[in-house]
Design goal:
single chain
């Protein structure tokens, strides 16, 4: 029997979480079975239970990881203040982001299914969303972030809904125009906050 080091086990678990996150965004939570999730990680079905108690626990962990990665890789690297929010908005509403479902936003890919998921999955999503909106709020109102929290949540919702709609449209030109309109709508919202 082969014994693996703690580092190897942790690397394997991270690979399962990362590949599951991409698959869940591409095929949905309900559309991703254990066999597929484990095959993506190069492992057998039974291996799941060496790392997670259930598919639901893997989904919860993958959602939390996707939300964390979105914050760390995109939001945390943006410039401070309104300029950073504009960077985030322009990145978010790019055709590349829209067309890259696997590596794109977990909000736009999974929001409808998360609403019907287990309480732990919904809590993992909520925790991740709160980190995003608190970052947005700190950029909207640096001297009083709590005052901009609800507006930041509205911005996140508008962004996710617009991206979902753009992904769903078969008319590419209309989908691109919607992204451009999303940028304009978000900038109006940001400018309105600055003048309050």
């Amino acid at each position: 029997m082969v014994r693996y080091t703690k580092e190897h086990k942790q690397q394997t678990k991270q690979r399962i979480i990362a590949t599951a996150g991409r698959r869940l965004k591409r095929d949905g939570i309900d559309g991703s079975g254990v066999a597929t999730l484990m095959k993506d990680a190069g492992l057998t079905n039974g291996t799941l239970y060496a790392y997670f108690t259930s598919k639901d626990e893997l989904v919860t962990t993958a959602v939390a990881d996707q939300m964390r990665a979105q914050h760390e890789n995109i939001v945390a690297h943006a410039a401070p203040g309104r300029a950073g929010l504009e960077q985030i908005v322009r990145w978010y509403f790019s055709p590349e982001q829209r067309d890259s479902i696997d590596d794109g936003c977990p909000n736009a890919a999974l929001l409808d299914e998360i609403a019907r998921s287990t309480d732990p999955t919904r809590q993992a999503y909520t925790d991740g969303a709160l980190i995003l909106i608190d970052d947005f709020a700190a950029r909207l109102a640096p001297h009083d972030p709590p005052s901009a929290r609800l507006k930041a949540l509205g911005l996140l919702g508008m962004m996710a809904g617009t991206l979902q709609l753009s992904r769903a449209l078969t008319d590419r030109q209309l989908a691109d125009q919607l992204l451009e309109q999303g940028i304009r709508n978000a900038l109006v919202l940001l400018d309105a906050e600055r003048h309050n």
